[in-house]
Amino acid sequence: MKTLKDVISLKIKTSESEGVIFHGEGQQGDYITLELRKAKLVLNLNLGTNQLGSIFGHTSVTTGSLLDDHHWHSILIERHGRNINLTLDRHMQHFRTNGEFDYLDLDYEITFGGMPFSGKPSSNSRKNFKGCMESINYNGNNITDLAKRKKLEPSNVGNLSFSCVEPHTVPVFFNATNYLEVPGRPSQDLFSVSFLFRTWNPNGLLLFSNFADDLGNVEIDINEGKVSVHINVTQVKKNRIDISS
């Protein structure tokens, strides 16, 4: 199809920071790709590039952050020629595409949740979307409803489940005055801990533990936006190890 206007809307929910939400391309070099990169929303669009290379149509716009929080986020793309409104959770960004063309010429399928392997370097380096989508609407077509009723022709509706599985993780909120204390494991010569965290604060103590028998302690903190691990051992010559990342 060759369109002068496009209206695309959908909602997403994911705990993954990378993934292609939808993709379409054409033989004239046109393409549109909406994806998550580093938990931000990226729209790549090209309404055409001429063979001489003097008209370069690639346009990339990034918006939002921390979209891998497993909450619903609404996306709306409105295009009229080269004028684009990209709205994420009611925050609208207006821009104009590069190049001189106004029509989006897509000869191939539009894919939601990933992009087909085309042999191009750009396709195999991108992850498919992992999460939930709802209310997918493409130029007046309710894609979610059509997919559920298997009315999309031609289509390859893979192993889709029309429900959204909730993650089993339980987050804990710390307000800089509370803390969580758990019992240690005596007579263990292995110390192992793992956790995910998210904060706007550049400084803060993440974890502290004393070793048994006054052998020292371990401390994990954020210092000016960097995570540092400090291990103090009382009975050896080199008694302090500091790791920063």
Automatic annotation (TrEMBL):
CDD domains: LamG. It holds the Pfam family Laminin_G_2. PROSITE patterns: LAM_G_DOMAIN (PS50025). Gene3D superfamilies: 2.60.120.200. It comes from the Eukaryota. Residues 1-164 form the Laminin G domain. This is CNTP2 protein. It comes from Vireo altiloquus. The gene is Cntnap2_1.
